[in-house]
Amino acid sequence: MDWKKASIINAKRLERALDVERFARQLAELPQARQAGITKTQLDALSEEREQAERQRQRLEKGEFRIAVVGLEKAGKSTFVNAWLGSDLLPAKSLRCTFTTTQIFSVKEETEQRLETQPKTNSEFSKLVAELKSVANGSDETRAKNAKEDLATIQQHQTTLKEVLNEGARAKHFTNLEEIKEPRSYAVES
Ligand SMILES: Nc1nc2c(ncn2[C@@H]2O[C@H](COP(=O)(O)OP(=O)(O)O)[C@@H](O)[C@H]2O)c(=O)[nH]1
Ligand SMILES: [Mg+2]
After folding, report:
1. Rounded CA separation 55/58 (Å)
2. Quick one: which ligand is closest to 79's CA?
3. Is the pTM of this model over 0.85?
């Protein structure tokens, strides 16, 4: 079976399971169900499962797949993704060069293509700096060295970083990957 057929079948299966869940929840909310010993914890667990199943159903319906490229620092993740996309979109160098999480989603229409940047909130950033400071003073020498380098980079670019953090989320539409080859300069320019 091809992936499109499998996606449709699994989306339908999930839809039926979600119907069953809805009826089960309605039954569980009846006074008789409480008497039968159904607890709030069980109902909450059911809701949690529902949210995940619903998200999965929507992804299957859209034919959306999530592929995580996982590997140690400098294992070649960015190089692999760039080769796959056929464009040097992600920075791939022998030195540490990535400070952000990248998610690439496929879209149906060219007009839907966009680069979104979502910087850390000020409190997330403060937390990161605090963590780096603690690692920099820790006993693991390699991690301490990396943390010190990161702190120095943060210090060096503090004005730009502050601007980016204060600006918050941004989106830039593009039709060709070449237009967003320099996402970092896009994030700090204009
Ligand atoms: N020899 C070799 N080097 C590679 C390969 N893939 C990536 N590299 C190099 O390894 C370094 C780190 O790659 P990068 O993609 O930035 O790693 P990342 O940190 O996992 O994203 C870069 O200098 C790449 O040119 C490979 O298949 N063979
Ligand atoms: Mg990388």
Report:
1. 5
2. 1
3. no
For ligand 1, mutation pick of 70, 79, 81, 146 (most atoms within 8 Å of CB): 79
Give per-residue pLDDT as tens, 156-190. Answer: 988 988 988 898 888 888 888 778 776 555 454 43
Q: How far is the CA of 80 from the centre of ligand 1 (A)?
A: 8
Residue 116 host element (H or E): strand 114-117
Average pLDDT, the chain: 85
Reported as a single tens digit per residue, the pLDDT across 118-153 is 888 889 999 999 999 999 999 999 999 989 998 998
Domain limits of the chain? 3-62, 93-188
Q: Could you tell me if 102 and 117 are in contact, meaning their C-beta atoms sit under 8 angstroms apart? A: no
Pocket of ligand 1 (CB under 6 A): 71, 73-79, 92-94
